[in-house]
Amino acid sequence: MNRKIADNALMHPFSVLRRIGFSTRLMQRLERHRSQQEKRGRVVSVLSWADGTWCALSLHCEKTGAVIVDEGQQTQAYEDARLMLSGGFLPLLSLRWEAHT
Length: 101
Prior knowledge:
Layout: H1 3-6, E1 10-13, H2 16-20, H3 24-39, E2 42-48, E3 54-60, H4 71-86, E4 92-94
Parallel strand pairs: 3-4
Antiparallel strand pairs: 1-2, 2-3
């Protein structure tokens, strides 16, 4: 794993997946996943890395709508996404929500 790449993810809105040109069937699956996550109060964004690795990441957003994905989380998402893609699976990941009080 290239640590420099893994630590530098870019976050995009879900709509970026529509512009990539996935098949209609695949987009229907991704849209269904997003709808299910939204019903649970989560937002689905897309993380991508410079080597072409990507994942759809569901996030719990507070009322402010702000989320921070730190370098450790980016690295873990990168590793998980690469494994899923190499295994022929859609990289649908979920960031665990933690409340810090």
